[in-house]
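User: Fold both of these, please.

Assistant: Here is the first one.
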Amino acid sequence: MAEKDKTKEKTTKTLKMYFLEKIKECRESSKQRKFSQSWDLSIALKNIDLKKPENRFNVDLNLPAMKTKKPKILLFADVLATEGRKYADLVLTRAEIEKLVGNKKQLKKIANNYDLFLGEITLMPMIGKNFGAVLGTRGKTPRPIPPNAKIEPFIQSFSKNLRLVLRDTPVINVSIGSDDMTDDDIAANAEAIVNFVKTKLPKGSNNMRAVYIKLTMGKPGKIVIQ
């Protein structure tokens, strides 16, 4: 009888509960670091043809728990440049973009050093031409902003979003928070991402091989999605 009850308890366990178990295991096995680590989530896929455009995606998801680590923001702007400098970590004007044309090393450095890219609509063709290759491959395509918009609400809104990208490789890698966040918040973000990705896959959870969660320098915990 006890064995049956145990089996029933296991089958009714939610995805979030599994994540909470793995998060606890990851924390216990991780060495103390002198820097703040990130929580990273990887979703390994199977039986999906990524040559078909309809099976690929590049979308934003609003996370249930805010990440405590503020994203580094780069704004491409002319009209909004003055206001943008109050909120963005770096502002590049049309003239400054032109100076970077052909400088592949500097373009890659910028793409790697910033997390969120925003751009005035009027500058988007220029941004795409010069930054498209380095930003697109990193899943950091700039979000367009109308030239007369208030910049602060846009930055606040996009800062809450997580970009999920599935292109040529059957795996999705994202940072879902930092180690100073609670286990419950990390698990809530992980659960929301997995459930959202299910809706974007042609066969839902049947296209998921496994999900891995880990701290930056720690060992991953594996969850098989049923």
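And the second sequence with its predicted structure:
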Amino acid sequence: MSGYTGTQAELLYAMPAPCTAVTAASQTQLNGTPAASNPPYQIPAGFFGPGNGGGLGKAIHVTGGGFFSIGTSAVTFVLDISFDSTISTHGISMWKTGAFTTTASVTNGAFYFDLYGHLSTLGNGATASALTTVGSLDWGTGNNAATAANAGYMMGAPNAPVGFNAAVPQWVDVWGTWSATTGSPTITLTNLCVWGLN
């Protein structure tokens, strides 16, 4: 807690259980499965707006991670964290990697993402508000004993704030896309947390 302002980060959501593994060569949701016992998190309508401690500079922090395995053939992968106004339907990418090439022959590798966003525009309409986003993805072998360096990928585009509708609820969804099913690549989200920072 800040001794100056009296504000503190508030944990809004912690995913209760690991999700179902994703193996498809198409954009597939990593979180929210099974939906009945492990639902995704929904940012309430007006969370970023005035009167809710919000307005310009209102910030969130999203972290998460899990494990993956890659067969003997390298493939590419895209990680995408979006705001979705309809549950489990991809909406607007807030933080996203490009398609990066994975290392082949990895069993139970680990990944971790650490993301920030703050409201830089507040308006009315479908994309009238905007979130300035930045963050990173770490990707490498699990329980790394200094035998191999992890790969790091930037996420978000702080030079181009992302428009969204701040007046309606937004689901925070995590999506993954393998380029192929060759070698049966798989990824499982085990941790996801969302904080309000102010």
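The chain has a mean pLDDT of 90.
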